[in-house]
Amino acid sequence: MFGREKVRERKSQLQVACFKIGRESYGVTIDHIREVIKVPLESIYAIPNVPEYITGIYNLRGNIIPLINLNIRFNIPSVCETEEDKILTGYLIVNIKGKLLGIFVDKVLKVISFDATRVQEPPATLQTLDRKYISGVVRIDREENFESEYLILIDIERIFDKAEFEEIPYKESDER
């Protein structure tokens, strides 16, 4: 729902949930996010024979949801160095094509709003993660009181190709 073409078309404010994966700041439009939660390790149940980035399943108020680790998915080392960093880790519960997934992030930051016209194409030299996952990049002004100078916008619907998406164990959500 939030692709490069739609960014160019929109002339309105975007609301983006911001988080860290490794040392970089990323964002996902809030229309995909249901909530942000902490998941105790003892509540995660491992599943055999799934890709390494699927860390298990979790019972979220009767919904069994798969948990995805973006550090592993994107091959980005985690940098939880302090107790504060560990406290700020969490899962974004997202709805992708009718599937609820828990997406692990190193640090949950905040929700920010900005004009969609500020979104730029990702630079060709961007090495952080595969450009196909990226909707755009936003330069953050100092007065916006944000940790990073740039925010990389992830196209959450593109983080899995069709075959990978079908491998993810899930219970269908009634939210579409």
From TrEMBL:
Listed GO CC annotations: cytosol
Q: Which GO terms describe its biological process?
A: chemotaxis; signal transduction
CheW-like domain: from which residue to which, for each copy? 13-165
Q: Which domain of life is it from?
A: Bacteria
Q: Which residues cross the membrane?
A: none
Return the SUPFAM superfamilies for the record.
CheW-like (SSF50341)
Q: Under what name is this protein listed?
A: Chemotaxis protein CheW
- Species of origin reads Borrelia turcica IST7
